[in-house]
Amino acid sequence: MTAKLYKCLALIVIVLLAGCYPEGAQYTEELDLVYTNYYNQFDFKSQKTFAIPDSVVKITGDAFTDPDGDGKPQFANPTYSAAVLNKLKENMAANGWTLVNKNNNPDVVLLVSAMTTTNIYYYYDWWYWDWWYGGWYGWYYPGWYYPPYVTGYRSGSIFIQMAQLKGLRTGDNATVAWNCIINGLAEGGTADITARIQTSVDKAFAQSPYLKIN
């Protein structure tokens, strides 16, 4: 999946997020949103083992770039990566899955990637000038007369894909059985962001009961 498609999915999530809190959220964690979907013809019960990389790929553009020339993409912050990956392992084990090495022919693999977007808003409210124009039937803000301000925040999205590996041959396309998008503010201290990531991963499994195979 390209980064452009990831960005489109993240935008959809942000729009849904805005609809959840039309009057604004009171707490940062209220802005976290978890979306999950799955292939309803996939037989999860027949799967037993999974593999997972030890890093989270950082999406930085529309195409893969290799700035170091080592054949690898860029990776997300190790602290946040560990929070995601460890929670995924914990939830998979709780649902009856067994973690194996990628070379041990796992049934499925969990692939995790992430991106951060800076959102800038330009805003003004004509009510600020009500005292000046005395409740006229209209208003006009030439030049600097209107009271603008610029504000912004960073939002982060984590993408999780469960793909079937067993039985694949070279050149085959893997079936994506389950996918998850976690979206929220990438603001706050490390401990706060880490805790919210872990809570969101738990929610993803809570709303995906078909992942329970034991």
TrEMBL record:
Domain DUF4136: 34-210
Signal peptide residue numbers: 1-25
Keyword Transcription attributed: no
UniProt-listed PROSITE patterns: PROKAR_LIPOPROTEIN
Transmembrane segments: none
Keyword annotations of the record: Signal
Entries under InterPro entries matching the protein: DUF4136 (IPR025411)
UniProt name for this protein: DUF4136 domain-containing protein
Native species: Flavisolibacter tropicus
Organism lineage string: Bacteria, Pseudomonadati, Bacteroidota, Chitinophagia, Chitinophagales
